[in-house]
Design goal:
With about 80 residues, the protein is an alpha+beta fold. It is built from 2 helices and 4 strands. The strands form 2 sheets. It has a two-stranded antiparallel sheet.
Length: about 80
Amino acid sequence: MSKVCQLTGKRPITGNNVSHSNRKTKRRFVPNIQKKRFFLQEEGRWITMTVSTSAIRNINKLGLYAYLKKLERKGVDTGVKL
């Protein structure tokens, strides 16, 4: 599964592990991506998406349809046809 959120666009970033002796080695910071099914009430259908947990929290707060409309106004391509 790709480590990219379909809604927020979060993807892995790189950084350093820093030891006690201040040695630095490369590492990856991966977002917490979950595969989740949402019910789109307005259209009466289920949608399966890979989303970050922060996007899940926003959906719980605003509602799926309102959150998708907000992203559509910002110009984000979610891959969901409304």
